[in-house]
Specification:
The chain is an alpha/beta fold. Helices cover 51% and strands 16% of the residues. It contains ten helices and twelve strands.
Length: 342
């Protein structure tokens, strides 16, 4: 279970060994609910919420991932109770790989997977659409596939050799992809372009909040695998910039895209789900609940194949991060000449 504390003034404390959530509803009536720490996997608390020290300690005692978010829902800090295994060796390998040709291969494959998923989603949307929309979706999916081939064809020994080219191709695919998503949405939900902080329309506001949730899930999976979220391959390294999270997340963004698109295509989103903020829009309490509930259900579905079994997307993300850590160790040994190349 994930607990999301997004209401201003909501408090998380401890009573009788349980998390106690308390808040005032729209009628200013005090509401309370309790949750066993044995059933809580992560606790997300947004700026304006209150977390007692006892609740923090209870989370650490039970290895519960505690995520602190800003007003937009973007994760800013994590307090975790787990211990990382093999962290030094994995992170040493990560540094070695980051300046090698192996980093080029990793990044090309991540971006290519992202574009593959974008094209696949557009093709999936052809169902139950008129002939003109089907033709549009076919055409744009084909264009994105062409860009994907160009990504895989990029040649370079280090990331510096291909960084500009891969960003350009990824950006071109993104423009095609999001414009096409807009074109096939119900007319009242269409948007001009991708916008981030702030979002300029409801669709982008939902995307931004959904990506923030995915960022945190991705970071948690990398940390559990012993991978340093700050040592990236494509995204620049910088003070407090989790560049590896931004690199590694790329193939999985389409998960959020699909959930958000489904909410809009089914006309489940209304003006009551967003609020004006800082020259744009962000999700209010109702919008955050709508999306976080939908994502929770989506990530718990056993739809991803791994070793011949169907597993949940949460499980898939954690397992693939662990395998990435193993590959880092192997690639570092190849760089050192400790093992023969396969």
């Amino acid at each position: 279970m994930e607990l999301h504390i997004t209401r201003f003034g909501a408090k998380v404390s401890v009573k009788d060994g349980l998390f106690e959530l308390s808040w005032f509803d729209e009628n200013q009536l005090l509401q309370k609910e309790s949750h066993s720490p044995l059933k809580v996997k992560s606790l997300w608390i947004q700026d304006g919420g209150i977390l007692t020290v006892s609740a923090h300690l209870l989370a650490l005692e039970h290895g519960i991932d505690l995520v602190l978010m800003d007003i937009h829902g973007m994760p800013k800090a994590r307090l975790s109770g787990f211990e990382l295994n093999t962290t030094p060796s994995v992170q040493k390998a990560q540094v070695i790989v980051s300046v090698s040709g192996h980093a080029v291969a990793f990044v090309k494959n991540w971006v290519a997977a992202k574009l593959y998923n974008q094209a696949a989603f557009l093709e999936k949307l052809k169902s139950r659409r008129d002939r003109n929309k089907q033709k549009l979706l076919d055409t744009q999916a084909a264009e994105i596939r062409k860009l994907r081939k160009r990504v895989l064809a990029l040649d370079g020994k280090t990331m510096q050799d291909i960084a500009e080219g891969i960003r350009g191709l990824e950006g071109a695919a993104g423009q095609l992809y999001f414009q096409t998503l807009s074109d096939v949405l119900p007319e009242e939900y269409r948007f001009g372009a991708r916008s981030r902080q702030p979002a300029l329309d409801p669709f982008n506001a939902f995307l931004n909040y959904g990506y923030a949730i995915l960022y945190s899930k991705t970071e948690q999976s990398l940390l559990l695998a012993g991978v340093n979220p700050y040592i990236g391959f494509l995204h620049r390294d910088g003070y407090r910039l989790k560049s590896m999270v931004f690199d590694y997340i790329e193939p999985y963004r389409s998960w959020v895209d699909r959930v958000v698109f489904r909410l809009f295509s089914r006309k489940m989103v209304t003006a009551n789900h967003t609020a004006a903020y800082d020259g744009g829009l962000h999700l209010n309490q109702a919008g955050k609940k709508l999306l976080s509930d939908a994502l929770r259900d989506y990530f718990s579905e056993k739809k991803e194949e791994l070793d011949g079994c169907l597993v949940s997307r949460d499980h898939f993300l954690r397992q693939t991060a662990g395998r990435f850590a193993t590959r880092l160790l192997h690639c570092a040994k190849l760089e050192a000449g400790d093992v023969p190349a396969a």
